[in-house]
Design a protein that fits this description.
- This protein is an all-beta fold and 415 residues long.
- Helices cover 0% and strands 53% of the residues.
- It is built from no helices and 44 strands.
- The strands form ten sheets. Strands 28, 30, 31, 32, 34, 35 and 36 form a seven-stranded mixed sheet that branches.
- The protein is elongated and about 165 Å long.
Length: 415
């Protein structure tokens, strides 16, 4: 029953006349009525007011009559595999505003709750009923259910691994642990490339003997059940050969104790061991290297090379690159000559520069006056002393402005 009321009531009205359409019945209470819409359809409710002067114009309101949704009928897949994604739906009811679905324990509604179609993820789901009710403002339909059977899939787990150095292949046994009823058909791949199927497998676990390097994966698994199998994978691995590239160079001063830092860029698996040669002669190995690039000091002159690198997988390879460490000697002078001018009022000094770096000789900080390793001074007044500091870019000499190798200090009187 629904009440319809005139509000406000006109005090001049002595009576009201009601009409109700749509086959609804009603109880007249004067300025209000009670309407029973059982079995009714859409229609109007109208009323007029009357007094001694006459009857008012009719006032009406339209009434829409909604039905409670009918019980829906579910369509979908009655037999699914564990892990399968399946669709379920009911015909769209124009009287329904929403739908409420329930699914068996473990299954999940991936999308569509509240609509007439859902997607169910059956991963881990149990067999049972998929149910739904259609809902509107008038209520909800009787529940409709649909029985679904969930079939377990066979499973396969590929395990095991191995490694060997490039150029030294070996056989390895990988294990495939299986569930479900035998026989099984197995397809595996190497680095994503499917191999020939293995059919009629009845042993569990199944031993797969392999030698080709790469990542082994299971592509498909089938048995007498209607569901494709689940699988996990392992791998067999060929370890690449390590590499070691030596770089760096420089020069040290003879007898100085200086060193030149050299660098080795490494590939492979740490820790590494390196064997060097110096001028072709093997040196003591350097082991336990875990930093990359690896830096070490070369404190002797000569040509350095890497004869062997070994990585943490035990793989061995020859290194590449070489480094030359030069040895600079000290600058010395010889063949000091003094030449007076024709009037004996002045003289020049010349001498030969030896050792060091000829391309960077200087006398008193300047290369002026040096030709092919022989220095000739500007003219010096007779009776005046002379002093020269001879140097090169390596700045390796025994004195600095004092007598000795690399320095010249004397005086001369012409005539």
């Amino acid at each position: 029953m629904i009440n319809y009321v005139i509000n406000p009531v006109d005090p001049s009205t002595t009576s009201y006349t009601w009409t109700v359409g749509g086959n609804a019945s009603f109880t007249d209470l004067g300025s209000s009525i009670q309407v029973d819409f059982s079995g009714a359809v859409d229609g109007q409710i109208c009323v007029t007011g009357t007094n001694a002067c006459g009857t008012s114009a009719q006032a009406c309101i339209a009434v829409t009559v909604d039905d409670v949704p009918a019980q829906p009928v579910i369509a979908g897949v009655a037999s699914v595999c564990n892990g399968e994604i399946a669709n379920y739906s009911v015909p769209l009811d124009p009287n329904a505003t929403s739908y409420t679905w329930t699914v068996p324990a473990g299954a999940g509604i991936a999308s569509g709750q509240g609509t007439n179609a859902i997607v169910i993820n059956w991963t881990g789901g149990a067999s049972g009923n998929v149910c739904v009710r259609a809902i509107n403002a008038c209520g909800q339909s009787p529940q409709a259910c649909f029985a679904v059977s969930v079939n377990a899939a066979p499973t396969a787990t590929l395990s095991g691994s191995g490694s060997y150095c490039a150029g030294s292949p070996q056989n390895f046994n990988l294990s495939i642990d299986l569930t479900g009823a035998s026989p099984w058909d197995i397809v595996y791949a190497i680095d994503g490339l499917p191999q020939a199927p293995i059919t009629g497998v009845v042993m569990d676990p199944f031993i797969l003997t392999v030698s080709a390097p790469g990542v082994y994966t299971l592509v498909s698994l089938d048995n007498i059940a209607p569901c494709p199998g689940w699988y996990r994978y392992g791998h067999d691995h060929r370890n690449p050969l390590p590499s070691a590239v030596l770089s760096g160079s420089g020069s040290i001063c003879q007898g100085s104790g200086d060193c030149i830092p050299l660098s080795v860029l490494l590939t492979g698996t740490p820790p590494w061991s390196l064997t060097f040669t110096l001028n072709g002669a093997p040196q003591a190995p350097i082991t336990g290297i875990v930093t990359n690039p690896f830096a070490f000091d070369a404190c002797q002159g000569g040509t350095y090379a890497i004869s062997q690198v070994t990585d943490g997988n035990g793989c061995v390879e020859t290194g590449s690159g070489s480094s030359v460490v030069g040895v600079n000697t000290a600058v010395t002078v010889s063949n000091i000559q003094v030449t007076c001018n024709a009037t004996s009022t002045g003289y020049t000094v010349s001498f030969t520069i030896n050792g060091g770096d000829p391309g960077s000789y200087t006398v008193d900080g300047s290369a002026a006056g040096i030709v092919a390793g022989v220095y000739t001074s500007a003219e010096i007044p007779s009776g005046s002393g002379y002093s020269f500091v001879v140097d090169d870019a390596n700045r390796l000499r025994t004195g600095d402005g004092v007598p000795g190798p690399g320095a010249v200090q004397l005086h001369h009187l012409c005539g």
